[in-house]
Amino acid sequence: MNNVYNESILVCVYYGPNGERLIKRGCAIANMMKSPLYILTIDPKPFDELDAEKLFYIEQWKEYAHSHATAQFIMKDNESRPVSKVIAEVARDNNITQIILGQTAHSRWEQITKGSIINSLVREIPFVDLHIVSVARYIRDEEGIYEKGVRAYLVKDGEHYKLSFNHEKHTEYEGIFFKEVDTDFDNGIFRFMKDAATLHVLVSDGMVTELKNVDISTAMGLDDSVE
C-alpha cells in the first residue's frame, strides 16, 4: 500500500466495549489515505498480571490489527508514566500524524472530557491532529446496566449452548459474560469472537438459545454519574 498522503494513524484504546468502534474509525481513515495504522493500549500493570477480561480485549485488538494490511498492535504494559507521555513517545517513534482517542470518563485515561490528555498532547506533539470520538463506558439497555465482564465459555448442549465459567471438553466459544445487575440468575450478554467478528448474544438463565447478534450500540450511553 502506497502512503499517498504521507500520513500515519494511531488509535488509542482502553478496555471496554468501545475499542472496536475506535479501531474501525482508524481503519476507515487509514484506508482512505492509504496509510499505516497503529493500535495502542497502555496499562500500569505488567502483562502477566492482567485479568481475563483485559486479555480478551487484547486478543481482539490483535485480531483487528492482523486483519488490516498495514496495521500494527502496540502494548505498553507496566507503565508508571502519564498516559499522554506514552502516547507522545509512540507517536514520535512511528511518525504519527493523526491520533484517535475515545471520549470517556474512565480515570485511567485521565478523564479526556476534562481535557487533561488533550492539553498535554497538544504541548507534547503540537503538529499531530487529534480525533476525539464519543464512546460509552458500559454495556446497557432499557432495563439497566450490566456488571463488569468475566471470562466465560459456551458449551454445546443439544441445539442450544450452556454458559460455563470453566473450560470444558465440549467448549465451543470463549468470551466475556456481562451479567445483569440485581439478579440471582445468569442473565445478560455474552461477547465473543466468531469468524473474525465480535458478537453479543443474549443469555437467559445460563442458556443461549441462538447465536443471534444483539445490536446494543444504539442503546449505549456515556454515564458520568457512575465511577
From TrEMBL:
The keyword Transferase applies. GO terms for cellular component: plasma membrane. Keywords: Kinase, Transferase. GO terms for molecular function: phosphorelay sensor kinase activity. Residues 8-126 form the UspA domain. Pfam families: Usp. InterPro entries: Histidine_kinase_KdpD, Rossmann-like_a/b/a_fold, UspA. The keyword DNA repair does not apply. This is Histidine kinase. It comes from Paenibacillus paeoniae. The lineage of its organism: Bacteria, Bacillati, Bacillota, Bacilli, Bacillales.
